[in-house]
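Async update (no meeting this week)

Hi team, since we skipped the sync, here's where things stand on the single-chain job. The sequence we agreed to prioritize is pasted below, unchanged from the tracker. I ran it this morning and attached the output directly underneath so nobody has to dig for it. Comments welcome in thread, and please keep replies under the output.
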Amino acid sequence: MAAETTFSPTQPIIKKSLYERLTGTKRQRDTIEGYLFILPVVLGLLIFTIGPVIASFYISFTKYPILRSPEWVGARNYVNMVTREPYFWQAVKVTVIYALTAVPLGIIGGFFLALLLNQRIKGMSFFRASFYMPTIVPAVASAVLWGWLLNPDYGLINAGLKAVGLPTSRFLGDPSSALGSLVFMSLWGVGGGMIIYLAGLQGIPETFYEAAKIDGANSRQLFRFITLPLMTPTLFFGLVMGLIGAFQYFTEAFILTSGGPLFATYFYSLMVYERAFRFTQMGMAAAMAWFLLVIVLVLTLLVFRSSALWVFYETEVK
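Output:
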């Protein structure tokens, strides 16, 4: 006969909750809780990022005028984009010229400012904040401000040129100077790169400079053999990010020129926007967007491959 189990009156009765009974051990509960915590991020990534990317890839192979269901056309959008789109190569040309001019000027300008502001002088934080402040101004507000400054009739820049007896310009109203004006406007935001380069400069150990000075190195040699090599990883980061941003240039051209005059500022992103929301050719717009992705991906890979020739990564000496 089995012995009957008895409990002491003082023995506590442990009642497990429904959650504990369903999840089992503490390790299992920790695992489930971890998944629950990351679930909102994963769902957001799937619904708002990966899902639209997959959908856009499918749409790029369809004729989709928004108001009707997508109609599968295969690679016709990609072929027509290159062969029949009247301003496709003009948009590519404008975007490439902008990238080849604005990106190097932005890197050089930001790096030069960082060198100037990397001084131990009282009140230097004020100048650093002043140069960085334009980067936090919304793009639309910045574009409106520059539209007023570059106005050929009553703009402040032309007024200043007249005051000192210099010839004025039509800036955004002239096809020969419109793209150059947008490149000039891009220098307004060099403060963002300046902060990154300034952080890189301050990360260089002072012992390198002290040792080089003991060996008789002058300021030019310090910059050439210490500052510049150790800053190449930071400059490489600025090059990659600037290149990606230049090929997505849109806001200023959309607000100030709408691609004109005479398509002199007809950027690639502006063309994609017009195909999607002005002519409701979602299939063609998606194909153009994926073509842009391939261009940026190839250029980024080329920059990464070239980094082995000029980017110096300091290794820890053991």
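Quick observations from my side:
The chain has a mean pLDDT of 90.
Residues 85-138+174-310 form a domain with the MetI-like fold fold (CATH 1.10.3720.10).
Reply here if anything looks off.
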